[in-house]
Amino acid sequence: MQHKGKRYRYSRMTRKRRRAQVRRRILAAVAVVGVCALGLGFGVQQLTGIGQSGPVDIQADTTSVQWEGAPPINVELLTPNEWSRPQIALQQIDGIVVHYTANPGSTAQQNHDYFEGLKDSQSTKASSHFIIGLDGEVIQCIPSSEWAYASNNRNSDTLSIECCHPDESGQFTNATYQSLVQLTGWLCHRFGLSSEDVIRHYDVTGKDCPKYFVEHEDAWVQFRQDVQDYADSL
Fold this sequence. Notes:
The chain is an alpha/beta fold and 234 residues long.
C-alpha cells in the first residue's frame, strides 16, 4: 500500500509538472507570436508610414510604395550627407512648398542623381523631399520626417516638391500636374493641412519659382482649388 501511494503521488506530481510545462510552452508561444506581430507592425509602419500621427518616415533605400490616394512613389533615399540629406528631424509639418527644377527637359531621375552627387561635389546644399517627372513619376529623396534643403527658412516645418518641366515657360505637362495635385492633396490629407498651407517657393523668398505659377496667378489659384478638391475626396 505504501508503494502504491508513492506511485500515486509520483503520478500526480508528474501530471502537475506536465501541465506546468504545457502552460509555460503556451505562454512562450504567445509571447513569441506577440513579439513577431509587434515587429511586423513596426516594420510595416517604418516602410509605409502607417500610423495615426507623425510624419511618414520611409526607411527603405530603394522600393516602390503605394498609399491609397497617393500616386505611386519610387523611394530612392539620398545617402545621408551634409550637403543634401543632413538628417535633421522635422518637429512638425505646417506646409508644403512647390518648386520647379529650372532645368528644362531634365528628368526626375536626373534631378535625384544631382542631389545625390552633392555629397561628392559639395558645390551647394540642395534637395527636395519629392521630385515629379515629366511623365508624372514620383521619386522620394528625403524621408518626410527630415529636413530637405529646399525652402530656405521654411526647411524646418515644410515638405518640398520639385517638379520637372519640358521648356523655359516652366509650365508642367499634364502628367506632372496630375501627379502634383494628387501628391499634394494626399499630403494635405495625411498631415491635416489645407490648400491654404500649400505655398510656392516664391512665397518664401520672392524667387521666380515655380515660374509658371508665379507668372500666372490664375493657374496657381486653380491648382490650389484642385488640391483642396482632391484632399476632400480622400
